[in-house]
Amino acid sequence: MSFIKDYIEQQTLNRRNLLLLSAYGLCGAAAATALRPTGARAVTPSPKIAWSYRDRTNPYWNAIVSGGNAFVRSLGLPESALINLINGGSSEKSLADIQSLLARYGSSLALAADPNDMPNCRPVVEAVSRAGAYVSTIWNKTDDLHPWDFGDNYVSHMTWSDIGPSEQTARVLFDAMGGKGGVVHLGGIASNNPAIERLAGFRNALKAYPNIQLLAVQAADWDTQKANQVMSGFLTRYGDAIKGVHCASDTMAYGVIEALRAEGIEDMPVVSYDGNPQAVELVTKGKILATVFTNPYWAGGITASLAYYAATGAFKPSAEPHEHREFYGPTTLVTTKDAQDFKAKYIDTNPQYDWKNFWSMTRGQIQYGKTI
């Protein structure tokens, strides 16, 4: 359990260092300028590969980038060949860093990206398309933005169907509470697709448990320190009325657990999401009752692979069916009953993946307006 306190203390310093790292290699780039539209599809034998993401101090994003590194190694390249664009949760920085990279490399860029929030996805995609480069995105985009509207340059978008799995974690929590008592929910960034869907799944579960009282819902922005502060506030406000905690991510659960420990509370039922190694370890010990694994290692590698092989001309995105361009990634519920076996298979070692088998683990085309 000491890792939680260490994790919280190191976040501020690590985030500052990683933000500096995100600018490494970009200092000599020209300032971002308006990029001209391109005509015919350009093929680049050896495109530059980049991953744009929030924060590598976060175990989830560390796993994403580890998958990206594994893909790069599969090409016979050193891990340093992967350009890391770390935005620290800023959509403005995300777009500015991508524009700077496009100003340097133009159409010779294969980009994997989480745009940080839904509205930011469109300007990122438009900038990449104007440059004639290639981008595959995950998690965050608006429902009206589709890869097939941008020819080959917007290669793909992957998200996860979080409503059903989040409802499952809520049911695990409510059952542990004996089907009654007060519950609080800590959510992610309000404009993030996963935050919206995980809250929706939580609310769906509430409908089947009339004796569970929802005390509060508050965003903690996927951040451990903010979650710690939010949970401390909940404890001050609601005290013993809180009988369970539903967290939209593992990293926020760490802050919740530390806040509970500070009040001498060791047995509060808590559930979370993402299946990070530390969270799975806590599930094996019963400190977290359930989490949901989204296989970020595979997602990080396959997203980079899709952008790269589209850039090289190995496949033509516009010739693929829609289910190969917008799709769900895999999810697995991990509970105290199966956490040990799961840990041995997915956490203690990373399975070997065929990075050219792009859609082997996808779960069908994204469906809008449906709760699956």
TrEMBL record:
Keywords from the UniProt entry: Signal
Keyword DNA-binding (UniProt): no
GO molecular function: carbohydrate binding
Superkingdom of the source species: Bacteria
Main location, first listed in the record: other
Residue span, Periplasmic binding protein domain: 49-313
Cross-referenced Gene3D superfamilies: 3.40.50.2300
InterPro entries: Peripla_BP_I, SBP_2_dom, TAT_signal
Gene Ontology CC: cell envelope
Subcellular location: Cell envelope
UniProt cross-references to PROSITE patterns, sorted A to Z: TAT
Alphabetized SUPFAM superfamilies for the sequence: Periplasmic binding protein-like I (SSF53822)
Keyword match Acyltransferase: no
Family membership: Belongs to the bacterial solute-binding protein 2 family.
Protein known as: D-ribose-binding periplasmic protein
Organism (species): Komagataeibacter saccharivorans
Organism lineage string: Bacteria, Pseudomonadati, Pseudomonadota, Alphaproteobacteria, Acetobacterales
